[in-house]
Structures are given as C-alpha cells and as structure tokens.
Predict the structure.
Amino acid sequence: MKFRKSKQREKILEVLKNTNCHPTADWVYDQVKKEFPNLSLGTVYRNLKILRQQGKIKKIEHGSTYDRFDAVTNEHYHFICEKCGQIIDFKLEINKEMIDKIEEQLNCTTTRQKFELYGLCGECGG
C-alpha cells in the first residue's frame, strides 16, 4: 500500500529515531505537538500504524497497558523493568542448537523469535 508523504509522519519517525526510551503514543504526541500545535492524538495513532505497515517502526507489546514504539527495526531484544517500566535494548546471538531442538520437539519451523527478559533495572535495584 502506498501512502502520501506527510510532514507530521516524518516528524513522528524523527522523534522515534532520536530516542531510546521506547515511548508511548502519548509521549510521541507531546513531542510532535510542539511543532504541530493542531495535531490530534488520533493523527499520531494513524501515523504510527502507517509507519508500522511500512516497516519503519515496531510496536512493542509486553503486557503493559500502553503500547510502546521502537524505531530500531533490526533484530534485537528487550529487558523490561517490572518496577519503572523502562525498556532496554540488547543484542544476543540466538543459540541455533536450541531453536533446532525446539523445532524437532514440536515438529515445527521457526520463522522469527521474540525474546524478552523481565526484572529490575540497575536504577530500581537490579
């Protein structure tokens, strides 16, 4: 699907690329509204959806009340603090032998992985 260029969408993507806090749509709205005072929260949600469809961002769903967004779309994983909600990126080489064993045990084929760790970050006493 092809979408028209949008200054607001470009700004939303810029905001996401310039943070590593994995923000909510409300946070993105607060940042972008500074440049576009007539911006609505609905517009932010629509543009976040379009950016996801274009593969430019990912939505992080980890059981929180709020979805969070990430402009880092390459293979990486997350540590999620159960106290403050901070999401921290980390890279990890996936153990191919483990994936092979799981596929053999379940008689399935893996197409992607989602790996998340939960606990307390360094600031919360981890």
About this structure: The beta strands are 58-60, 68-70, 77-81, 87-90, 116-119. Residues 41-53 form the longest helix (13 residues). Helices lie at 7-17, 25-33, 41-53, 96-106.
